[in-house]
Amino acid sequence: MRDYKVVVLGAGGVGKSSITVQFVQGVYIESYDPTIEDSYRKQIEVDGRACDLEILDTAGVAQFTAMRELYIKSGKGFLLVYSVTDENSLKELLALREQVLRIKDSDNVPMVLVGNKCDLEEDRVLSISDGVRVSQDWGLVPFYETSAMYKTNVDEAFIDVVRQIMRKEAAVTAEKKQQKEKQKLEQSQLNGQQQSSQIGDNGNLQQGSAGLNGQTNGNASTNATNIPRNSQSKLDKEKSSSESKCCTIM
Q: Is residue 17 within 8 Å of residue 57, measured between CB atoms?
């Protein structure tokens, strides 16, 4: 069973705790109690794989921004929550997302955009198209409008971010495997080049030895041939000298 840490981020009062408790416990919290930090665990099955989720419900107030950075560093996936009854809560998410991307040092972070309190139609100030527009600006980040009261799209939002985490981990694993195979191939090619170089050096050495032996044999043969010629020349000179002396005597 794999462990996944999901962090719920958003402004104060948007219903982060409500959707988290609804997902984990199936209970709707009506009263608002500002959260500093709450952690929940839940085991679910996603695409046939068992998952153990640790869900961190973070504070939405500004004085806990330092703690928020720690949560972001440890998180693998993020629910960015705003309220459809509060326009400013959506604007705050823009800065929160930039913070997440900066801390994670990546543009590919598992993330879901959540517009909560969709059941409060009379108080709505943000339409579905507003959420869709932000989703498109963020590179088609999955977007859900949820209702913590009626559990509308609550499970779907959490499962979506877990599925993104799983896909990213699978991609990282595949990339590492590919790099390992590439390194193995490069090493094999290098070893082959070294072996070919050694074989070439040995061949040149053998050719050089054969040439040297041939040259030595050739010199010996030449010397052997020259010896009779020199002797013959000396005999010819002696004979000529003898003949000359004989002629003079006569």
A: yes
